[in-house]
Design brief:
Order of helices and strands: EHEEEHEHEHHHHHHHHHHHHHHEE
Largest sheet: 6 strands, mixed
Mean pLDDT: 92
Strand order of the largest sheet: 1-4-3-2-5-6
Strand content: 5-15%
Helix content: 40-55%
Radius of gyration: 25 Å
Structural class: alpha/beta
Distance between the termini: 68 Å
């Protein structure tokens, strides 16, 4: 594919001027995240309408003009599975790319699987065979081979026709508003994930007491600071299971911390005094400032109804031409049932009762719970064996 390589500030400025006049900009990135705290950006592929560019971040000191151009109004920005691309932009300029359109998300809104790989979308929507073979390449190495270059360009070359095809399908199903709602929520979730509440994602911490959670929070913040300072992945500082174990023990005694299985590593031995101080800090948090996990009560009705309705979810979504995994999970169904049983303590309604999800499945599940709709097996051999029918009035 014919393209230009951008390796200087002057070249980047020229590209940004072209971006300012474009109606659509498609972009993708190649990065390596195994060895550093933050992903190391190694290549940026850009399609400005029909022109292709490769930006080499290893040659250009400051990419901020590019991110500013992406965030500026006046164009649509096309990506596939663009979580990290969005994060790069937010971290650089504090704003998202303008009018972001993720083709993976759009595909799920029109009945394709979610999340669908780029190659799958190319094959099914455009009848194009994807470029393969460089998914595990080390993008930090130079020079890039011709094969690497063509693989990277392929990731943006087809985004415009994918966009055109998916927009036509969204319009046929009258789901443009649904898509924009979901894109906004998706971006908001990713932006929120950059905040300090990420400590709640520590694996195994969900059932801990408020005091133990206060310790988890302090240990997580210490780990983030250490990983950032040393520029290494957080897992190399302190594993999640060790954070949870220290939080359960609730001891700031250095000898007891050292006795925890898994703390034998030399680098962990050296920071045991620091860990003891961090645990002590968590133990000193006032009771009213300890984090609390909202737990919704369970019951036999919730379990039975949740299992029953979860089995019908995929049938409802297939009939509605939307990916089940995008609509919700079995846990989301249980949340809806808990809400109707009065076992829901969250101030916000369950996900399946909000926005476009309510239109797709929430209202129908509500009718099933109320007895206004029934399910029957219409055709045992059909891909859609279940039928949902209004209850006949006596």
């Amino acid at each position: 594919m014919s393209h230009q390589v951008v390796t200087s500030g002057a070249g980047l400025e020229a590209l940004c001027r072209q971006m300012a006049a474009a109606a659509t900009i498609a972009f993708d990135t190649e990065f390596v995240s195994e060895d550093t705290y933050r992903p190391e950006l190694c290549l940026v592929q850009v399609a400005v309408e029909r022109d292709l560019y490769l930006i080499d971040p290893l040659e250009i000191d400051d990419l901020r003009p590019f991110w500013d151009a992406l965030a500026a109004p006046g164009h649509k920005t096309l990506v596939h599975a663009g979580r990290q691309e969005l994060l790069f932009c937010l971290d650089s300029v504090g704003r998202p790319p303008h009018e972001l359109f993720d083709v993976q998300l759009a595909a799920g809104m029109v009945g394709m699987e979610y999340p669908a790989g780029y190659g799958n979308l190319l094959t099914r929507l455009l009848n194009v065979q994807p470029n393969k073979g460089e998914t595990r390449t080390d993008w930090r190495r130079r020079p890039l081979s011709e094969r690497q270059i063509q693989y990277a360009l392929d990731d943006v070359f087809h985004l415009q026709p994918l966009y055109d095809t998916l927009v036509a399908r969204l319009d046929r199903l009258k789901r443009r508003d649904w898509f924009h709602e979901e894109m906004s929520a998706w971006q908001a979730d990713i932006d929120a994930s950059r905040g300090n509440e990420r400590w709640r994602r520590v694996t195994g911490s969900s059932n801990l007491s408020p005091r133990s959670l206060a310790i988890v929070r302090e240990l997580w913040q210490w780990r983030e600071g250490e990983a950032s300072r040393r520029d290494i992945p957080t897992r190399q500082i302190l594993r999640d299971d060790l954070i949870v174990e220290l939080a359960k023990r609730r001891s700031a005694d250095a000898k007891q911390i050292a006795a925890v299985r898994g703390m034998e590593r030399g680098d962990l031995r050296r920071v045991i005094p620091d860990l003891a101080n961090v645990v002590a800090k968590g133990l000193a948090v006032p009771e009213k400032e300890c984090p609390v996990v909202v737990r919704n009560d369970s019951s036999s009705q919730l379990t039975m109804l949740g299992q029953f309705l979860s089995s019908a979810l995929s049938s409802i979504c297939r009939d509605a031409e939307v990916a089940t995994s995008l609509v919700g999970t079995a846990s989301d169904v249980r949340d809806l049932v808990a809400f109707r049983l009065g076992q829901w303590s969250d101030p916000e309604k369950p996900a399946l009762m909000r926005g476009w999800r309510s239109q797709v499945v929430g209202q129908l599940l509500d009718d099933l719970l109320a007895g206004n709709t029934s399910i029957r097996i219409a055709n045992l051999r059909s891909d859609q064996p279940l039928a949902f029918e209004p209850r006949q009035k006596q």
